[in-house]
Amino acid sequence: MVASDLPPVTDIGQSLDDGSSLVLVDVDTGDRVAAWAELDQNTSDADGAPLLIIPAAALAEGHRHAVGLRGLRRTDGTEGEPTAEFAEAVARPDALAEVWLGALKSAGVDPQDLDVAWGFTVGSTDDISGRLRHMWSETSAAVGDGAPPFTVTSTTSMAALAWCAGPSRRPTTSKVRRSRPGPGQRGRPRRHPDEHR
After folding, report:
1. In contact, 72 and 5? CB cutoff 8 Å
2. Which of 13, 79, 101, 123 could lock onto 127 through a cystine, CB 3.0 to 4.6 A?
3. How far apart, in Å, are the Cα atoms of 65 and each of 1, 46, 48, 74?
4. Through-space distance between the first and last CA atoms of the chain, rounded to whole angstroms
5. What is the pLDDT of residues 24-77, one digit of tens each?
6. Pairing mode, if any, of strands 172-174 and 114-121?
7. Four-CA torsion 16, 66, 71, 35, nearest 10 degrees
8. Are residues 61 and 90 both part of a single domain?
């Protein structure tokens, strides 16, 4: 990784330099995005450790992004070369490849200098949390402003347990809206109102 001069976490600003080996671009705005690279430490195979590309800030939701790596070198110092498949994609890009290659070119990266590149889309706000927010809105409307009514039916002392020196646990019963089926009942998926049935 040192031989490839990829921007480390200690010099994230390097990723915004004109000659950076790592280029991350927001395709929808054309802006460069600061990022760093590091090898995955959660592997016992040092030679086959995945390369992680980590943006310095959260990527814009719903936006397309392009990543380009160039000037890569192997551990022995020799230059890396693009695969035949990637070279073919650069020479004859399809509609999707034209988008992320075009974004990288607009950011000052010559596609012919790339060792590897790809594009991806960050999920939109609704894709990421829409169902959860819908469940919360639905449940809040059913419960109202206060907590659901509950009745204390018994208390159980936990003092006998050595690991619990705190107050007693108090089992309660409460009336709440169920989001999951009970025993013996068939589940029915809860749908976001915008989903097709």
Report:
1. no
2. 123
3. 23, 29, 26, 26
4. 49
5. 999 999 999 999 999 888 888 877 789 999 999 999 999 999 999 999 988 788
6. unpaired
7. 40
8. yes
Task: State both tokens at 16.
Answer: 């915004």
Cβ atoms < 10 Å from Cβ of 177: 12
Q: Which domain holds residue 153?
A: 139-174
Q: What is the pLDDT of residues 80-100, one digit of tens each?
A: 899 999 999 999 999 999 999
Structure tokens of 14? 């390097």
Place of tokens 């290659």: 101
Contacts of 58 (CB under 8 A, 6+ apart): none
Beta bridge partners of 176: none
Contact predicate 142/151, CB 8 Å: no
Query: Running DSSP on this structure, what letter comes out for residue 73?
Result: B
Domain limit, last residue, from 91, 121, 151: 121
Phi/psi at 112 (5° precision): -70, -15
Q: Are 66 and 117 in contact (CB under 8 A)?
A: yes
d(CA 172, CA 154): 7
One domain, residues 63 and 157:
no
Round to whole Å and give the CA distance between 77 and 62. 39
Q: With contact defined as beta carbons under 8 Å apart, do 53 and 65 qualify? A: no
Residue 187 domain-assigned (yes or no):
no
